[in-house]
């Protein structure tokens, strides 16, 4: 499995120490929980050291490593998305707004919009691609159906020929 790039806390602490005669206690504190680190720091549980909170775009492993207003999504600190909106974290479909579902995106469950008429709706039977990135079903009143006539430029007909359609009566 690939490792996420990171700076071990000791290196991060060295950078912060430059120019200051004595490092703040939080940078050298051994910890098991965030409470042990004090304001502006979190406990890097992997290394057991207090490290400064991280800003937008910095690598993270959990929300508590990011400054207030940011969430750890896809391994980086991002601005938090309000609950129920597209891109917000969710556990079940009802956590999302109208015409949305809860589906995995890069392995995290987030609110995504349901597919519209004519959009590709092909879903593999399973496998890694399905587990990491999922799509929502077609919007209300539409069904995922195979097109009757293939398009000229379909390089992967099995996928490209499935679209959201109005059901035929």
From TrEMBL:
It is found in: Secreted. Residues 8-20 have a biased composition (Basic and acidic residues). Residues 31-77 form the Dickkopf N-terminal cysteine-rich domain. InterPro entries: Dickkopf_N, DKK1-4. One of its GO terms (biological process) is Wnt signaling pathway. GO terms for cellular component: extracellular space. Gene3D superfamilies: Lipase, subunit A. It comes from the Eukaryota. Its main location: secreted. Residues 1-21 are annotated as: Disordered. It holds the Pfam family Dickkopf_N. GO terms for molecular function: co-receptor binding; receptor antagonist activity. Keywords: Developmental protein, Disulfide bond, Secreted, Signal, Wnt signaling pathway. Belongs to the dickkopf family. This is Dickkopf-related protein 3-like.
